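Work Package 4 report. The design task specified in the project plan requires that, given a folded chain encoded as structure tokens, an amino acid be chosen for each position. We show below one input record used in the internal validation round.
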């Protein structure tokens, strides 16, 4: 049996203080629903879309363990705007493995973007970002990931411990099935302190002040046959999308 360390959960009302003091926070699903006003059934209706993610063809480690979709949005106040489809780009400074490439992924499905929960969760995290960094027009990149163990091992963060070059990162655990590993690790970007834990509850979320902490997730292996780990990663950045 795989042993996991529980995450250090925060009530939604203590989220600003937790982020300010520690640079990261974890909300369980109930706390996130309270924060976002998303109904549980509306969030659950999004989950089947992770079964229809195309392969990531850009993996430089030669692996075939990652599937994903990617779309971009602009959030200002209550307004959520779908941005024209664009490549995902990161500099080599933030991603030594895949940085410097224009990576084009299939967009997030219309059924997800048009769902009742989608604008609520985007707006909720924009409010968190503004509490943390000041009121801004937020440029949001949304990534749906499935990491599988078909080849024996899957790497959620093949680039290792990293920052994303944004202001806020949100990592939602959507599903975790038939695997061991997948431990989340968060470290001070300029110090020795760190914490390790495993997200296991669907729609629990890790929030990161990207300027202050670095993060990674350890590889996953199958427990019995093929398994997978599904996540939704949302990044919030002021002053525009990253572009090469």
């Amino acid at each position: 049996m795989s042993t996991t360390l529980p995450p250090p959960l925060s009530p939604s009302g203590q989220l600003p203080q937790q982020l300010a003091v520690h640079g990261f926070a974890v909300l369980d699903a109930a706390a996130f629903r309270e924060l976002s006003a998303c109904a549980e059934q509306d969030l659950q209706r999004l989950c089947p879309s992770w079964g229809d993610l195309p392969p990531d063809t850009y993996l430089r480690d030669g692996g075939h363990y990652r599937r994903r979709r990617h779309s971009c949005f602009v959030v200002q106040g209550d307004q959520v705007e779908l941005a024209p489809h664009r490549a995902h780009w990161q500099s080599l400074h933030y991603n030594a493995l895949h940085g410097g490439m224009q990576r084009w992924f299939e967009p997030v499905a219309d059924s997800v973007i048009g769902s009742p929960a989608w604008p609520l969760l985007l707006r909720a995290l924009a409010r968190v970002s503004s509490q943390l960094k000041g009121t801004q027009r937020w440029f949001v990149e949304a990534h749906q990931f499935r990491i599988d163990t078909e080849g024996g091992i899957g790497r959620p963060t093949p680039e290792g411990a990293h920052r994303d070059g944004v202001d806020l990162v949100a990592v939602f655990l959507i599903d975790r099935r038939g695997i061991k590993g997948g431990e989340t690790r968060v470290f001070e970007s300029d110090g020795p302190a760190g914490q390790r834990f495993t997200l296991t509850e669907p729609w629990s979320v890790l929030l990161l002040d990207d300027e202050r902490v670095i993060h990674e997730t350890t590889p996953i292996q199958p427990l019995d046959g093929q398994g997978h780990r599904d996540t939704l990663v949302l990044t919030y950045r002021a002053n525009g999308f990253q572009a090469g």
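DSSP finds five helices and twelve strands in the chain. Validation will be extended to a larger panel in the next phase.
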